[in-house]
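[Archive record]
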Amino acid sequence: MPDRDPERIRLNPLHRFLVLNDTSFYVARWNGRMDGLETIGRNDHLFVFFRWLCTREVCAGIDSLLSAHRNVVREQVTFLANSGEEKRVIDEHLEGCSCCHVNVNCFVDQELFTILDESKRYEAVMNAGPWRYKRHGLSSGISDIARIFGHWDYRSESRTSAIEKCIADNGLRYRYANLDHTLWDKDELVRILNRSRVGLILSDVEGACAASSEYLLCGLPVVSTTSRGGRDDWYTTNNSIICHASVDGVDAAVRQALRRLETGAFRPSAIRRSHVVRAEAFRERFTNCVQERIDRLRISFDAGSHLRRVRFDPRRADGLSRFDVEYFV
């Protein structure tokens, strides 16, 4: 798990996104814990996604938790895997539960993250919190870069000190950094991405990594190290370069990506389109998964229409907001 203060990690309550008669449909995230399982009834369905790589050890922890909550029917629990490898692990180690390969980045807002008519100002951009697992030091050879430091704690003192330490410890250079922002504005984020040419993601392991898909939706090719957790589920030779995890390796890959943009081998519109198409396929797979469970209830209800209406995004199950709930009697 990342090097964060555990006392500052938000709780992960269940969120109900649909109620049909006496059956509720919940979504939750697993981030080392999952609160609220005692509220689930025997008729209810639970969908769980991951913010971090799911391993055999993670499955063992989840298995123990489910065993301690006998009110939860395993056959009515479905895990959303961010990669085919994650699905294999879950299928093998979480007996009785279902798993669907639905990379959670398919729910990144593709209307917000889009290609804008902005002049390019930066060769590269790196949107990453000031944490060790992000491996900022691998980008220290790049000076023409915009650095966006996300942070789970937006109290200025804590946030500023963490960012300053990250910059100093890794010898980071930059042409732009959001050091003076106490809360990042998403519209401004999209503008910065559109003013950049290449997006950097350099962690070895995490989850699906929303920043990676945000780059792609804004038409930026991605330079990434080899990774585990699901972000490479979106990568092809037409939208990314996988580089050696070294300062020279990252620098060389950025140069290569810039050349491919110049020659047309990387085309921003095609990069965005490939992500949109794959995201639609993942969302359809999830919708079909929900619809199958509704059909078992012998109720006529269109899952797709409902999920679109509430703008379903399982990543919202983090204490920040709640879904509308549709009641069918």
Q: What stands out?
A: The two ends are 43 Å apart (CA to CA). Residues 1-11, 318-329 have pLDDT under 50 and may be disordered. The longest strand covers residues 23-30. Residues 150 and 184 are 8 Å apart (CA to CA).
